[in-house]
Design goal:
The complex is a heterodimer.
Chain A lengths: L3 E8 L7 E7 L2 E6 L2 E6 L4 E3 L5 E5 L6 E5 L1 H10 L12 H31 L5 H18 L9 H15 L9 E5 L6 E4 L3 E5 H6 L3 H16 L2 H20 L6 H4 L1 H7 L4 H18 L5 H16 L3 H19 L11 H8 L22
Parallel strand pairs in A: 8-10
Antiparallel strand pairs in A: 1-2, 1-7, 2-3, 3-4, 5-6, 6-7, 9-10
Helix pairs in contact in A: 2-7, 3-9, 4-6, 4-13, 6-10, 6-11, 10-12, 11-12
Chain B lengths: L4 E5 L6 H14 L5 H14 L1 E3 L2 E5 L3 H28 L7 H26 L1 E3 L2 E5 L3 H17 L5 H14 L1 E3 L2 E5 L7 H25 L9 E3 L8 E3 L7 H21 L2 H15 E4 L5 E6 L4 H34 L4 H39 L1 E4 L21 H6 L10
Antiparallel strand pairs in B: 1-2, 1-12, 2-3, 3-4, 4-5, 5-6, 6-7, 7-10, 8-9, 10-11, 11-12
Helix pairs in contact in B: 1-2, 1-11, 2-3, 4-5, 5-6, 7-8, 9-10, 10-11
The chains are: A alpha+beta, B alpha+beta.
The complex binds zinc ion.
Zinc ion binds next to α6 and α10 of chain A.
Pfam family, one (chain A): DUF7092
Protein name (chain A): Beta-barrel assembly-enhancing protease
Organism (chain A): Methylobacterium cerastii
Chain lengths: ~375, ~425
Amino acid sequence: MPSSTASGRWFDGRSAAPHDVTLRLGDRLEITGPGVHRDWNLDDLRAREAQAPLLRLGIAGDPGQVEVVDATFAAILAIRCPDLRKRADTAGGTWRLVVGSLAAGVAILLAVALGLPVAAGLLAPLVPDGVEARLGAAVEGQVLDLMGDPPACADPAGRAVLDRLVARLVSGRGLPSDLAVTVRRHNTANALTLPGARVVVLSELIAKARSADEFAGVLAHELGHVALRDPTRALIQASGTSFLLSLVLGDLTGSTVIVALGQAALSAGYSRDAERAADAYSVATMQAAGGDAAALATMLERIAKDDAETDPDFLRTHPFTRERAATIRAQAGAAASGRRILSEAEWAQLRRICPGAPDKPAPKLRPGRGRRV
Amino acid sequence: MPRTGEIAFDPRLRGLTGLAVVGFLLSLVTFGIYRFWYMTDLRRFFWSRTVVDGSPAEYTGTGRELFLGFLVALALLIVIYVGLFGLAITVPALAPYSAILSFVLLFLVGQFAIYRGRRYRAMRTLWRGIRLGQDGSGLVYAARAALWWTLTLATLGLAYPFMRASLERYRIGHTRVGTSRMASDARGRSLVGPWLLFYAVAFGPVLAVLLALLAANDFTLPTDLILPKPGGKAGDLILNPAYRGSRVATLAIALGVTAGCCLPLALLLVPLYRAREAKVFMNAASLNAASLGPVRLVSTLRARQFYWPYLVYALSLLGFVAVVGLIALLAGLAARAAGGNGFAWAAALGGGLLYLGGALAFAVLHVRIVQARLWAAVATTTDIADADGLNRILAATHGPGSGLNEGLADALDVGGALQIGF
Ligand SMILES: [Zn+2]
């Protein structure tokens, strides 16, 4: 094999001083100069990254390296050493990395879709009452903020009727003692249940109800969410989702976790199973309190029909409303329709709980997804 | 006569575009995880093309180290967030301040991360086989940065150049090349001039118009000049009709226009300040090589070398948008000639191309034009006085150190990108 020579600068790795050397390329690479003698195996030889025509050569385990500026020598060396440009860190690793990170992304999505609901269900009962109460206060502040601070309705006569109604519905049901039901003026027919046993009824819901039993049915449904700890569960699930998704989507400060609490409480609906369970709770509660347990079904259908005019998703959500109504009527039985939970006079007082001017236009909550009823 | 050595940077950047395109696309399909490997490739490229006195620098960091550091940092951040959240829940009195508290805490962690990230880059940098290093304490650096920022805010920004110089002295003073330590005698007062230019441009004309306004109103502030709009939403304001047509009203409008123009104009001074700062810092830096007198850096950087990359970048982006518009226009004309809805075709094609190509073009051009040219500007304008002193640098025995330092900077998104003059 013909040999090729070049002159270069040797650095011993102990000092930055250069030493002039001669490189002789044969079956091996010989580097010789004053006080320098190396005989390197071509298979071990690696070129460290440099801009051609500069070539920087070394082998693993030797702190010394040699710099050569000689295009012909570099070309010959490249032919003799197939592994010259092989890198230790990314050799063949790129595809493994792509596949691995795709798998990690899919795993996180699966954890969000399947694992989180289970984890949230297990964690929710473990949250201490004191913590949940403070969490509820914080979430209520944020939710009201997002809704444009709707004013509270506290007409004394209407409030007294509401308090009596709530007392009848919760009697003997073992709900948290700090249960707080408030009414706020808002032009969305909805009710929100927040962590810490807080139920916020929006005035439009009372306006839409045609009987006390329809309203009481919805209220009992919300109490069902309280009893089953759905708000805390949903909050844990929503925070976990936003955190895990922020991992995938690259918002890596995790700040979404705290910022999104209120948003999550507003937008994330409960699962269908949770709604069915709250419906069943409402039927049982209304029966125990002596009301028309089937009125909830009528109310749900009316709200869904009104939503249909504004919500293009209606077709998707409607079959579920119909199924819920049918289940509620079947559970309530035929005898339900004769009962009345409040007298007409009491109901008239309750309807006046939000006195004063007619509703001013407020930002309307998107129906459907945010539906808490 | 001492020999002057030069720092060179190959301006052809062969291979950089391919590196950036592949890195960007792989980062996209791997949910961003590939960016650690992409950043490593970019650093290897920039380091290896920066030739100091004939020998290129070498970057020995790996994507895996950055990724592991990022995971550790993420775990740390979760602990911090959960801790803050728990504190707000258990001590309700603190809840209103939790936003401020988390900002202060994250600022400190961010400064700590910047310092430790720099330490990682230093320890992964070799020159002629000699490893660089950085000692000093990230906690001390974070505390200094916090105090300086407080002072800067308290002096309405006047302390800013002094803060920059002080932190630079700390960073450089704790940088080592082998057994030799670097030093910086950067002084904030050399930067006061360009820094005050910001104030002159941003506030000078506004102040002049304000004085004219006060003079026109007999040196009393016209407090009833702006009124809430009758029947409007909260925050809607109108000019008091009683002043309509008066000199005061004209000057008030001029004041608004001046303020609207001068503040963006002041932003155009950022490259000027940065260039001056880079030059001052480079000139202040030296290396004390083995007790034989310092090796000094000499910079001849001009501000226009910092403006040029941004100008070329802006023109490239405009050119990209123009080309996409032209393609969309031609497609629209072709579709119309074929009897279709020309406008819809043009809009769909133009929008699609802009969206898909835009992100890629922005990212690649930024690396290729802004980062590479700024890097080249600093490197090629810097010379080494008494370059023979470099030969006396000796390797230290310290090892390459842990790679867990820099992930925090990435997780917090501070200083994670390539830094000029590392
Ligand atoms: Zn519900």
